Automatic annotation (TrEMBL):
<dbReference type="InterPro" id="IPR036388">
    <property type="entry name" value="WH-like_DNA-bd_sf"/>
</dbReference>
<dbReference type="InterPro" id="IPR036390">
    <property type="entry name" value="WH_DNA-bd_sf"/>
</dbReference>
<dbReference type="InterPro" id="IPR003781">
    <property type="entry name" value="CoA-bd"/>
</dbReference>
<dbReference type="Pfam" id="PF02629">
    <property type="entry name" value="CoA_binding"/>
</dbReference>
<keyword id="KW-0678">Repressor</keyword>
<dbReference type="InterPro" id="IPR009718">
    <property type="entry name" value="Rex_DNA-bd_C_dom"/>
</dbReference>
<feature type="domain" description="CoA-binding">
    <location>
        <begin position="92"/>
        <end position="192"/>
    </location>
</feature>
<comment type="function">
    <text>Modulates transcription in response to changes in cellular NADH/NAD(+) redox state.</text>
</comment>
<keyword id="KW-0805">Transcription regulation</keyword>
<comment type="similarity">
    <text>Belongs to the transcriptional regulatory Rex family.</text>
</comment>
<dbReference type="InterPro" id="IPR022876">
    <property type="entry name" value="Tscrpt_rep_Rex"/>
</dbReference>
<comment type="subunit">
    <text>Homodimer.</text>
</comment>
<protein>
    <recommendedName>
        <fullName>Redox-sensing transcriptional repressor Rex</fullName>
    </recommendedName>
</protein>
<dbReference type="InterPro" id="IPR036291">
    <property type="entry name" value="NAD(P)-bd_dom_sf"/>
</dbReference>
<feature type="DNA-binding region" description="H-T-H motif">
    <location>
        <begin position="28"/>
        <end position="67"/>
    </location>
</feature>
<keyword id="KW-0238">DNA-binding</keyword>
<dbReference type="InterPro" id="IPR058236">
    <property type="entry name" value="Rex_actinobacterial-type"/>
</dbReference>
Length: 230
């Protein structure tokens, strides 16, 4: 069966539970595929998809097989079909409406970033507790009062929340967000947060990422003795 003959999955329902590394790579493939679509290219081989996404071609074939997509030898994958399939598996065919809580340096930068919309995320609200910020315009958003969190989330039909708050208030705001019925939360706060099991919480920790990078940089600079032949 060619990829073009594979029946469509119901919108937004992943074919099966995907390994986390596959989910990360799918986002890379999707970016590449969307670039190809924009250039009017309608076929891609697993090798060139692998190369442009910066992963191995065996990874590509394995990852795409989870979605039921097996390219045709010598013909490759149909770009439009594959991009829709990945978007479905990643849940990107849903309407994601993002509210950012905390309009400080980070929240403002995120709110002004124009790249979310093209990736399927509509930033619909920006909230802060500082009355000097409430009512000011940042990008195309007016900062709402964090006291009105529940009302703003309901009014804007937000279904995803980004916490760009100081650590000290993050848990209490997170609890309110969860009580308001939000089950997808991305936190930048430098503290562990607890949420109920049915809530997806992702944490972005740049300092940890930098530490990991430092570790790898150090290994490159000072390779272990057995690799130098010494
Ligand atoms: N994870 C990362 O990679 C990363 C990188 C940078 C910053 N951070 C963290 O992100 C958070 C935000 O960073 P920042 O530089 O924007 O800080 P900031 O101090 O500039 O902004 C924080 C904002 O939160 C608001 N706030 C405080 N309490 C609130 C509440 N109860 N409800 C709503 N708003 C409230 C403040 O008024 C302020 O505007 C910090 O916790 C910081 O440590 C994380």
């Amino acid at each position: 069966m060619t990829s073009a003959q594979i029946p469509e999955e119901p919108v937004g329902v992943p074919v099966r539970q995907l390994p986390p590394a596959t989910v990360s790579r799918l986002t890379l493939y999707l970016r590449t595929l969307n670039g190809l679509l924009a250039e009017g290219i309608d076929r891609v081989s697993s090798e060139s998809l692998a190369e442009s996404a910066g992963v191995g071609s065996a990874n590509v074939r394995k990852d795409l097989s989870y979605l039921g997509s097996y390219g045709t030898r010598g013909v490759g994958y149909e770009v439009g079909h594959l991009s829709r399939k990945i978007a479905q598996a990643l849940g990107l065919t849903h309407e994601w409406r993002v509210a950012i809580v905390g309009a400080g340096n980070l929240g403002r930068a995120l709110a002004r970033y124009a790249g979310f919309e093209s990736r399927g995320f509509d930033v619909v609200a920006l909230l802060d507790a500082d009355q000097m910020l409430v009512g000011t315009e940042i990008g195309w958003l007016r900062v709402s009062d964090a006291d009105d969190l529940e009302t703003v989330l309901a009014k804007t039909r937000a279904n995803m929340v980004v916490l760009a708050l100081p650590g000290g208030v993050a848990q209490s705001v997170c609890d309110r967000v969860v009580d308001a019925g939000i089950s997808s939360i991305l936190s930048f706060a430098p503290v562990p947060l607890s949420v109920p099991e049915d809530v997806n919480l992702r944490k972005v920790d740049m300092a940890t990422e930098l530490q990991i990078l430092a570790y790898h940089a150090q290994r490159l600079q000072f390779p272990p003795l057995d690799q130098t032949g010494a």
